[in-house]
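User:
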Amino acid sequence: MDRSLILAWMLVLCTAMAPACCQGYYSHSVPYVPLPEKVTHLHFFLHDTMSGKNASAVKVARPNMTTAFSDSPAPFGTVLAVDDPITLGPDLASEVIGNAQGLWVSTGQDVVSLVVYLDFGFTRGEFNGSSFSVFSRNPVTQKKREVAVVGGRGKFRMATGFAQLKTHFVNFTTGDAIVEYDVTLIHH
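Assistant: Predicted structure:
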């Protein structure tokens, strides 16, 4: 009983003292003054390679049962980690301007579709050190499609927008693909 009473008093004292010693974790609110918005258009090619010794997309998880599209390189439920080069032209030998890193998950049971989270980081030119992020559904069997831009950093801070994708090349046996990106970014 005495231990319970002592513990209760210690709890009361600690609780009473907590506000006094823990102030300063926040700042006073100030009115929000938005920065002027900028619009940037980007055009590049993403090279997603699942085959060969230098694959840029590798499986990190795969279902242990038969699922939709089990005979494809990425059946339903497959998770891949990617570090895909992005280039100025469709040829992998063209200038590399950055890379897209992230994950994609095969989510379509009726039609091949992915949910992608990719961060497009630029390593050359005007946007060196900046990136924007995509988190969206990507119905890869459609030649033309659109994904959502959900954020950015550096020169693309607080980015929103969209990317229109067009399949330039795809090998459904290996999973290798080259995808053309036309991106519209709205940022500060």
